[in-house]
């Protein structure tokens, strides 16, 4: 790819073109014996002309490049170099390189493919969903939104108006005048409500009435969709938008083209919103009503996109005016480092070419780049004596510790390794960038990976082989970069602990009016291994047999931690616990990440619920029908805490589980069986409690189910199907290692067990925690207090349609144990608008609530702490003044620690960081892929065949899901093995397939067909 930025003399151009065709970067699928083409010791030596060498002597006229290429082709046909068509596998895989691919903005093939993931917070259909409908970060665009999409195979972005979701496809009308569709939808820039319903109406009316993806594909191929004439006014509107953006760009070209120089710090990464960047780069005269218009923001956005290694969007949003539209601004030092490596690679290839033309000019002393190549190559070859490499994104597993020689890397070496990490681990270079070409050339120079693509996955393997990352590392850990944190090789995220941590603490704010509840039996229902016990429940009876007070007690660290303190800012960096197996990361963790240690462990112990520990109690008065009659919040102190196991409580209370078909569990590796650590608290069985406590527990469960039924009637999601549960245990490191040994030892591979999580554990917990969140939201809303309210964006105006779709189509099949498809989930999400956080309350359709916030886990979630701080300030004011706080009459900005504007700004960053945390937490899928590779290739325990259900059909293959924890897979035309023609396959059809490849780094699985089973009904009859 770097040929595009260099000008060589004719003699070198012919040589380079010769080598380029032999190289295996981007579109080449197979090359025979690359090692004889490039490498430190095998660069082709043409000093002695062979029988096919047509290089003229110095006196003859040089042959044209066309003649040279024809000659090369005639003598190298046996190498079987195949260039992929542009659409090959891109519906499923990531394009390795868009820089040298042919481009056509009007290509129907290009438009139909999965859009690239936008930023580090986006969630796509391949991700496990689980309870994600309840989580912030499930984006949902609305018809009429203007969006920019960057297709994986294209360098040019496409602007279009979103038309909606139907038939398993997202539909758009592009500025080029085409009706287009995509499988996934990740937009880098959006303008909400760009097109009016009147402008959309004729376009929507012209779309054929199709039900399935196949019907839509055929209709579009036959040009039966909306024409340019029908959408002419909308096309003009989009073109005007882009012309206005271009006008802004031309007017501020000097500042926009120097954005990196103006915005970047010398050494530190910065995080700026699109608003902040526009304020710096654009003149204030462009503002309209105090804000930059969308086209001006788009001019800034496109300018930032032109900088290859300066800016990276963290969290593009559904509207460019949202404050969480954040960019990562890389320091000048990073830009300089990347370009130094690129220069070294160019110099290396140039020198090799010159030495080939004239061996007398070959250098005697190796350059720093060549020294790195030699050093790294020797290290890798030594590593392969104990662990071989695989093309699957992991090294061959080992049941014993393996040794790797310690190497003193020079500054140049570390810079090259950092370049490869930026490419393979952090994915900082776009497929359209020139920098992946330099990475591929480094791998080619190593001469270690013959006959395979020299892409990001291979660079990942190289980093594993030199010990930069673990042989079984989780790629998704590196897909998200939390601000001001460092990813640790051993696991966890490192942060700098603020100095003088004790200064962030305060005396109990509510000591003077804290209620004594020592006589109440408080049930803390958590797994025995839990160390953060931050919620419990109790029951209080009233004078009426049919009315009860349900008290939900939450840990109360907010009463003893000063808001906006250094400790508060420290927790804000990682706003919630990350539950990635083998890499648990607590919000309250030490310098090196992981679980709480030292001062943080003591803080957790101080506030975990126990006897004589303070709590913040959310109370609701309810009747047997589940109606909420009253509610209140009070600081309390507990005195009779009973710890219970949720599995025992679920059985005791008779919780029902929806029947589902589950695959059998499987495991790989040798488990280091250790006796379980005894819990640090007594955990009795529910049956061993006294009669009064048992009755309280059963009553709480009954009332919780009644409350849940009321939420179901308002549209709440009835049941979340179990997702794969991964258990990872690491073997112990031998204690007899010699500290003077010049080798570094890598432990044996971890034991991995995969099974489906069992049904919901102890419904009384989930139902009462939701109740507490509703109470907190209502109590704060009554007083006008800004807190992080959870809500969806569109259900208020689409409630009736959403309720009808959910209750008529989705929920009945859930009750039968049939999990809704991604298309059905997306359809509902379009109606409800996706989940957001806001400083003002709003409805939450999926929860069946008018308003909601999270308030019961302040030791695990920063958002809960924000809510507690606001509540404590309000309680203190009400106690001091003996009156109810009223936002319409009192100055809340003076009373509360966070004003509405401050809360809005805090929520913007919280929104982004929560989405990032969720994405890392979903990386358990990587563990499943690692386990499947090991079971398939090494332990030979994987199933011999799977059932493959087609979800998308393309000209070159099929995308679908396996009956193995729902993993997505791809089957190309060759993989169908003449069992069926692609044109005869419909979405929903099933095939019996076998594995052909798994790539943990890219997350891809490819399969081959063993038998065509037909539609699901025919398959079940068989």
Supply database-style keywords.
5-stranded antiparallel sheet; 1022 residues; 27 helices; single chain; 33% helix; 5-stranded mixed sheet; OB fold (Dihydrolipoamide Acetyltransferase, E2P)
What do these coordinates show?
It holds the Pfam family OB_cyt-4. This is RNB domain-containing protein. InterPro entries: NA-bd_OB-fold (IPR012340), OB_CYT4_C (IPR057912), RNase_II/R (IPR001900), RNR_Ribonuclease (IPR050180), SH3_CYT4 (IPR056625), WH_CYT4 (IPR056624). It comes from Bionectria ochroleuca (Gliocladium roseum). One of its GO terms (biological process) is mRNA catabolic process. The structure is a single chain. The N terminus and C terminus are likely disordered. It is globular, with a radius of gyration of 30 Å. The two termini are 51 Å apart. Helices cover 33% and strands 17% of the residues. Among the domains are: 382 residues, no CATH class; 79 residues, Nucleic acid-binding proteins (OB fold (Dihydrolipoamide Acetyltransferase, E2P), Beta Barrel). By secondary structure, the chain is α+β, with helices and mostly antiparallel strands. A hairpin with a 5-residue loop joins strand 25 and strand 26. The chain contains 27 helices and 28 strands. It has a 5-stranded antiparallel sheet. A 5-stranded mixed sheet has the order 12-16-15-14-13, sandwiched between helices. Helix 6 packs across helix 10, helix 9 crosses helix 10 and helix 14 packs across helix 15. The longest helix is centred in the middle third of the chain and has 26 residues.
């Amino acid at each position: 790819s770097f040929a595009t930025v260099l000008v060589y003399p004719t003699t070198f151009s012919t040589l380079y073109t010769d080598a380029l065709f032999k190289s295996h970067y981007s579109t080449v699928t197979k090359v025979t014996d690359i090692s004889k083409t490039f490498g430190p010791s095998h660069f082709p030596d043409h000093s002695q002309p062979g029988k096919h060498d047509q290089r003229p002597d110095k006196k003859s006229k040089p042959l044209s490049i066309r003649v040279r290429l024809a000659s090369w082709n005639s003598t190298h046909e046996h190498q079987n170099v195949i260039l992929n068509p542009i659409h090959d596998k891109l519906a499923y895989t990531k394009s390795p390189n868009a820089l040298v691919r042919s481009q056509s903005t009007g290509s129907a093939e290009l438009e139909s493919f999965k859009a690239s993931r936008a930023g580090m917070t986006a969630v796509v259909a391949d991700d496990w969903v689980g309870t994600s409908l309840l989580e912030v970060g499930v984006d949902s665009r609305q018809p009429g939104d203007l969006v920019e999409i960057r297709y994986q195979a294209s360098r040019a972005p496409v602007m279009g108006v979103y038309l909606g979701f139907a038939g398993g496809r997202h539909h758009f009308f592009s500025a080029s005048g085409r009706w287009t569709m995509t499988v996934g939808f990740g937009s880098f820039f959006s303008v909400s409500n760009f097109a009016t319903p009147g402008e959309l109406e004729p376009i929507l009316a012209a779309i054929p009435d199709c039900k399935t993806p196949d019907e839509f594909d055929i209709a579009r191929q036959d040009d039966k969709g909306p024409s340019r004439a029908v959408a002419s006014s909308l096309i003009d509107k989009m073109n005007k938008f882009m012309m206005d953006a271009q006008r802004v760009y031309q007017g501020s070209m000097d500042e926009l083209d120097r954005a990196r120089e103006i915005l970047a710090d010398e050494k530190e990464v910065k995080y700026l919103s699109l608003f902040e960047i526009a304020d710096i780069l654009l003149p204030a005269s462009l503002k309209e009503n105090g804000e930059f218009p969308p086209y001006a923001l788009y001019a800034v956005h496109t300018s930032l996109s032109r900088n290859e290694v300066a800016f990276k969007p963290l969290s593009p949003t559904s509207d460019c005016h949202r404050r969480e539209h954040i960019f990562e601004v890389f320091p000048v030092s990073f830009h300089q480092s990347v370009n130094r490596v690129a220069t070294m690679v160019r110099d290396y290839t140039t020198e090799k070419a010159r030495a080939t033309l004239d061996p007398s000019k070959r250098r005697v002393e190796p350059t720093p780049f060549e020294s790195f190549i030699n050093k790294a190559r020797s290290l890798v070859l030594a590593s392969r004596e104990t662990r071989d490499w695989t093309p699957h994104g992991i090294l061959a597993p080992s049941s014993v510790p393996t040794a790797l020689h310690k190497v003193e890397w020079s500054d140049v070496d570390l810079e090259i390794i950092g370049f490869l990490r930026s490419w393979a681990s952090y994915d900082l270079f776009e497929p359209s960038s020139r920098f992946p070409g330099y990475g591929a050339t480094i791998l080619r120079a190593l001469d270690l990976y013959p006959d395979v693509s020299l892409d990001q996955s291979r660079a990942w393997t190289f980093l594993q082989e030199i010990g930069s990352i673990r042989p079984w590392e989780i790629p998704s850990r590196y897909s998200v970069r939390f601000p001001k944190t460092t990813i640790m090789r051993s696991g966890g995220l490192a942060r700098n602990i603020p100095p003088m941590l004790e200064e962030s603490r305060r005396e109990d704010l509510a000591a003077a009016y804290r209620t004594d509840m020592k006589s109440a039996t408080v049930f803390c229902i958590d797994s025995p291994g839990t160390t953060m016990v931050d919620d419990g429940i109790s029951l209080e009876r009233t004078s009426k047999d049919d009315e009860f007070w349900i008290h939900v007690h939450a840990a109360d660290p907010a009463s003893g931690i000063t808001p906006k303190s250094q400790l508060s800012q420290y927790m804000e960096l990682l706003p919630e616990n990350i539950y990635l197996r083998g890499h648990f990361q607590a919000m309250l963790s030490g310098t090196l990440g992981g679980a709480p240690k030292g001062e943080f462990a003591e803080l957790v112990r101080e506030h975990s619920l126990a006897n004589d520990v303070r709590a913040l109690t959310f109370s609701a008065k309810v009747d047997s029908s589940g109606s909420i009659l009253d509610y209140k919040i009070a600081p309390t102190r507990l005195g009779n805490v009973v710890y219970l196991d949720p599995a025992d409580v679920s059985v005791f209370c008779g919780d029902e589980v929806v029947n589902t078909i589950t695959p059998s569990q499987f495991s790989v590796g040798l488990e280091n069986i250790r006796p379980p650590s005894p819990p640090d608290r007594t955990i009795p069985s529910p049956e061993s409690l006294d009669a009064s406590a048992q009755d309280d527990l059963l009553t709480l469960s009954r009332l919780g189910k009644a409350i849940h039924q009321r939420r179901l009637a308002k549209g709440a999601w009835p049941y979340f199907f179990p997702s794969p549960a991964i258990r990872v245990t690491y073997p112990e490191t031998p204690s007899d290692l010699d500290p003077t040994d010049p080798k570094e030892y890598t432990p044996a591979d971890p034991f991995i067990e995969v099974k489906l999580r069992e049904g919901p554990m102890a419904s009384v917990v989930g139902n009462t925690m939701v109740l507490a969140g509703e109470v907190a939201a209502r109590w704060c809303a009554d007083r006008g207090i800004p807190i992080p309210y959870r809500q969806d964006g569109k259900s208020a105006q689409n409630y009736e349609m959403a309720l009808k779709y959910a209750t008529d189509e989705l929920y009945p099949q859930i009750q039968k144990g049939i999990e809704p498809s991604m298309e059905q989930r997306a359809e509902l999400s379009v109606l409800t608008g996706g989940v957001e956080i806001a400083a003002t309350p709003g409805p939450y359709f999926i929860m069946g609530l008018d308003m909601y916030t999270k308030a019961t886990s302040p030791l695990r979630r920063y958002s809960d702490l924000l809510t507690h701080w606001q509540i404590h300030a309000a309680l203190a004011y009400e106690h001091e003044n003996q009156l109810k706080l009223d936002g319409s009459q009192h100055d809340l900005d003076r009373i509360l620690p966070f004003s509405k504007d401050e809360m809005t700004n805090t929520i913007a960053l919280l929104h982004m960081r929560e989405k990032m945390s969720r994405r890392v937490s979903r990386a358990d899928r990587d563990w499943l892929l690692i386990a499947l590779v090991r079971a398939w290739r090494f332990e030979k325990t994987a199933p011999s065949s799977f059932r493959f259900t087609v979800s998308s059909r393309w000209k070159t293959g099929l995308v679908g899901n396996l009956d193995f924890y729902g993993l997505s897979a791809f089957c190309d035309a060759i993989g169908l093995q003449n069992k069926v023609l692609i044109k005869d396959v419909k979405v929903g059809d099933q095939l019996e397939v076998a594995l052909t490849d798994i790539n943990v780094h890219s997350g891809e699985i490819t399969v081959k067909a063993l038998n065509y089973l037909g539609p699901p009904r025919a398959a079940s009859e068989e």
